[in-house]
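User: quick one - fold this with zinc ion bound?
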Amino acid sequence: MSTAPDSADRLEVTGYRLTAPRRAVLDAIAHTNRPFTIEELSDRLPNIGRATVFRTIKLLQELEIVCRVPLEDGGVRYERSRSGRHHHHLICSECGSVTEFNDPSLDASIEENATLAGFELDGHSAELYGRCASCRGGGAL
Ligand SMILES: [Zn+2]
Ligand SMILES: [Zn+2]
Ligand SMILES: [Zn+2]
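Assistant: Sure. C-alpha cells for the protein plus zinc ion:
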C-alpha cells in the first residue's frame, strides 16, 4: 500500500538530489495517513524552513508523489498519492477522508471538451464532494 519506499528512488531517478530536507519531508509524508496542510507538515519539521517545505511539496507534486486536494470550502490540502499517477478525488466533508479514483473515459471526455472549445489544456483535476460510505452509516454500499 505504501508508496514511501520508492518515493525517494523516484526523486533520484528523475534527476533530483535527495537532499536532507527533501528526505525529511518525504519521511514526514510517509507517516501521514490524512490529507495535510503545508502548515501542519511544517510544524512537524521545525528544522526546515516553511519555504523549503513548500518548494519540496511542489516538486513532489510534479512527480505525482504528492497531490493537491482543493477542498469545498476553498482550503487546500495535500496527500500522499497512493497510485502515483493521475487520478481524481472523492472528498468526504464529514471525516475529511480522500479516496482516489481513476477514469480514463472521464479524462478523454475532459480533453475532448477542451479541444472543442479551442482550449489548450495544461492539465485538469476533478474533486467530488460528499460523504464517504462509512460516514453514511452501515446501510450504504
Ligand atoms: Zn490524490
Ligand atoms: Zn467520511
Ligand atoms: Zn483526470
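One thing worth noting: Residues 67, 79, 81, 87, 89, 100 surround zinc ion (ligand 1) (CB under 6 Å).
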